[in-house]
Write a structure and sequence with these properties.
Length: about 80
C-alpha cells in the first residue's frame, strides 16, 4: 500500500510504451526486499522484548512499572 502510486506509475509506463518489463521487476524486487527487511526488524524487536522479560522475570515490578517498561521497549532505540 505504501508504494501503490509508484506501482501504478511504473505499470502504466510499461503498458503504454514498452515491451521491456525490467523496470517493473526491479521495482517489485525492491518492494519484496523492503518488506523482508521490515519483517526482520519486527522479529528482532520481538526477540529483544522477550529476552528482556525473560531476564527480568524475577524482578519485582508493579503494574505501572511494567507499563512504562513495555512502552519503552515498544518505542525501541
Amino acid at each position: 500500500m505504501k508504494n501503490r502510486e509508484d506501482y501504478y506509475n511504473i505499470l502504466e509506463n510499461i503498458q503504454n510504451c514498452r515491451l521491456d518489463v525490467t523496470e517493473w521487476f526491479v521495482w517489485f524486487i525492491k518492494c519484496v526486499i523492503s518488506a523482508i527487511e521490515h519483517s526482520q526488524n519486527i522479529i528482532a524487536n520481538v526477540f529483544k522484548k522477550a529476552e528482556f522479560w525473560k531476564k527480568h522475570a524475577q524482578t519485582q515490578l508493579n503494574e505501572r512499572q511494567r507499563k512504562v517498561i513495555a512502552k519503552l521497549l515498544e518505542a525501541g532505540p
